[in-house]
Specification:
Four copies of one chain form a homotetramer. Chain A is α/β, with parallel strands linked by helices. In chain A, 31% of the residues lie in helices and 28% in strands.
């Protein structure tokens, strides 16, 4: 590592030690905001930001995100969490609290295309991605040196057509208990349902089309064939249905008849890496809630 | 009116009779969200949406918008407003409450270009602009028939170079006490400071450039001259400084060396009308707060 | 017409009397540009603009558009067209020449949604759409007064479930020989193959989704259901395959989980009208070539 | 270099050995396209693409770009260039011809921000930037190791306030005769007129605002102060006037009141690197012509 590029980890812009984030889903009814904000106030927490979304005020689901500061967070948080039961029981809430200073650990899965991984590494070293990249796993050895030059462990786990289960077993061993989020950064293998159920709404994939257009393989060739005038990319949580999971973020760019498939790929690379990085950023900042195969994005 | 086009005023999608919106600005400190949401809950109000913005959690300004339903709003609101004094005093709040069913009344000022006025009329007749267009005022007679065909009063108030004060006096007479918002829909006359102070943050202008680029006259000619690759439009509240008031919304479109000034104008027209309509919509839905020549947009 | 709004038909910005446009498709091989541009020069034509596209220089199709000025165009054009046979035969060209001053005649088909029709009418009256709107045909009477107030003939041709053929017969009688282009401006009926073959690549439809996503009915409901973060609209030539014809133009806008189906429709309306108007504009300016279900757009 | 990341230089998608590009500016008059295309045809060149722009057909400037294939280009080109004099004299043309296989050599100037440099390096290693990065020059040593890990020479030339002329002298020695284009990739020093005149229209700068808004220093702080709703970046050729040279490319992104200056910088970084990379790509593909402080972009 002595003669390679050192990531210039920026110091957090503001002191994050006392910052926590809370995500809540529950059936909608009067008094939720009042109850939670009053609860937080009673416990000495100062609400920095709150976002809420009511699917249908007449009786749907209600989603809320609070960001708050609490002195001596490490010691106070367990108390606050225990006390919160009386609020959450009353409103039948599903909820979680995250400490902002406790960085999420990522495993990035790649194959041969490097642009999405590079974007994550660049944003990480620039201090824009507040996570730990715990490891990179690839079915090809190509990116090993690059990854190691960033001081990140690299696991080469080949995936052979007749031994996929074995490869997944190795992957699971590598990640279980060690990562909070798996990012498929143009990883070109199907993940099995068994693997997915270990990481519900914790695997983010980038699909190189504007879903639901062009599901499956070779989306740029499909886009060229159809003659679309705009191409896109989609970051989504992985579910059992191929390219069918909850969409987190999408973006697009204009193309023309002059753009052949290679050009679409080239243009698409920039869309893919930006879209994936945004989705990962929102996940690690606890801005995403999933309900019925759709995401609520509090950004 | 019998043989002219009837605006198809859509019914409100949901019952708005009991809906109110509250806008608050105050110095930031702990407990604001808790206090207000608890207050609303106590008074039987059900919070439908809340948005907040903390300029600087360490001690800046705090802005919040609540949208809530309250049974028997018409009778209960005065009580709620009176009671709120104890909360607002405690936190030194500036605040307002608006009933959603009480449509704001607009005066639209135009000169000879009709596209921005037409967009407002179209959105209004489509039921997308929940306001009453109380009158259109123009320094030219050209659009009189069009405006009247929508059943809207039209005032032709010529503005002569040597009698501007007299024209403004007539305008003021027409609007005072009769409108909540003045929209300058490509109105090509300068408004005097005296007029502006009657409508603080209640006059919205559309400027046909991406401000602060190309302040003043002939912005498309300036844009052509400079060779920009993107043009834009800016909706802002009118202040004494020409094109210098708080920006509400901006949008842009790509252009090329092939676009001459006429083309820039043509392309710009679509940007202008969309940007102005968005800004007006946000104002009439009470989504805008102004602080130190900048807007907070809760949309 | 005396008391209704007069469209302010702008004078053409430049004298169009001598302007012509030429569209050519042929197998690619050396010498095409040289041959055509030399031919035009010999005949006294001054090339104002040329655009070309070579699918595959190694042996695909070649497309070219010339815009040129020719003195005394009306008299000279027949000569030029006759002489061009020797060039076109040599290169196996499919070609057409259009006089810019000869405005194309449009029939606009509508049902109950008026926004796309209104956009076309506005652009037409602003002088931005250099066409004659020869008639509006609708299966509902609702827009009759509006259309007539612009001085445009309106045909109400009801389409009953058990008498579609009869309705199409009436439509064909109305348009045959009288229009150059049919614009389906949110016309909610399927057009029969028999009708379509009378107007090959001369029927433009606006589909209210980002094709090929959400083919068929209720695309905004489908988009809401899938939880997309961007919605779009697509203008395409109509072919026998539903929503499957050559795409002319697409555009999109960002949405969020907060946007319900009604909101998506509202946002979508602005995309639809802008996209359709662009596609129509390109068609009437002879900027579109179709090859194998895709468009070449020389804009 | 043995254990560092190897740029995966892709093979050119099509054989570029026989490809050349021609850029011409001249006063507009009839026969230019015919004369040049006929000349190329006579010399056995096959036109692959042509673009032209006529500022004012009635008598302005005319710009044209041809891309063509010519067998045995290396031997034939000198002949073709010599013969072209008779065409260029007749039409008073300024013109140049470039061989596509002859990659342009770049010097990239940087200070402490690495994102623009990194983008160029990634695009270069992905084979998307058909140039040789001949050297990187910086007034700080920080990026030395990174640059060398790509196998690219790095010159650390400190710029002291009292010895700017000396630093420029060293820079000129490093680049003169060795590079075709200088890219200021967030290089935070003013370049002297004397330096600029050595590289007319061959120095590209990225300015971190949507010019002409926010000329000069700290544009993100200026943008925050003004409360704009969209920020941008501008790539332009460097002239003596600060941030006043011909604009090559611009792009923008939406921001909100929530984005503080640090956030604007973070968002802006992605705009800057994409905009700069596009401008550099167009320059090295000979797609840019400059006329009266504006660019013609044939892309």
């Amino acid at each position: 590592m002595d003669n390679t590029y050192q990531p210039q980890q920026l110091l957090a812009r503001s002191e994050k030690r006392h910052r926590a984030r809370m995500l809540i889903s529950c059936p909608d009814r009067p008094g939720i905001v009042a109850a939670v904000s009053h609860f937080l106030y009673e416990h000495g927490a100062n609400i920095i930001q709150s976002d809420q979304y009511s699917m249908d005020p007449g009786g749907g689901m209600f989603f809320i995100r609070f960001e708050f500061d609490l002195n001596d967070l490490e010691r106070e948080l367990p108390v606050l969490q225990e006390d919160f039961a009386r609020v959450s029981d009353r409103f039948e809430m599903k909820w979680s609290i995250f400490r902002a200073s406790r960085k999420k650990r990522l495993a990035v899965f790649v194959s041969k295309e490097d642009h999405c991984l590079l974007e994550l590494l660049w944003q990480w070293q620039a201090g824009d991605l507040e996570a730990d990249i715990a490891m990179v796993i690839s079915n090809h050895p190509d990116m090993g040196e690059l990854v190691k030059s960033f001081g990140i462990p690299f696991h080469h786990i080949p995936v052979k057509a007749d031994a996929k289960a074995e490869a997944e077993k190795q992957q699971l061993e590598a990640v279980t208990g060690k990562v909070d989020l798996i990012v498929l950064a143009r990883y070109m293998q199907i993940i099995s349902p068994k693997f997915i159920e270990q990481f519900p709404n914790r695997i983010i994939n980038i699909h190189h089309s504007f879903l639901p257009a062009f599901v499956g393989g070779k989306p740029y060739a499909q886009a060229y064939q159809r003659g679309v005038k705009i191409i896109g990319a989609t970051a989504h949580y992985v579910t059992e249905e191929l390219d069918g999971g909850p969409i987190i973020e999408q973006d697009v760019q204009r193309v023309s008849h002059r753009d052949d498939v290679d050009n679409l790929k080239r243009i698409g690379r920039t869309i893919e890496r930006v879209v994936l990085a945004r989705a990962v950023k929102w996940h690690i900042e606890d801005r995403l809630l999933v309900h019925q195969n759709k995401t609520v994005v509090f950004n």
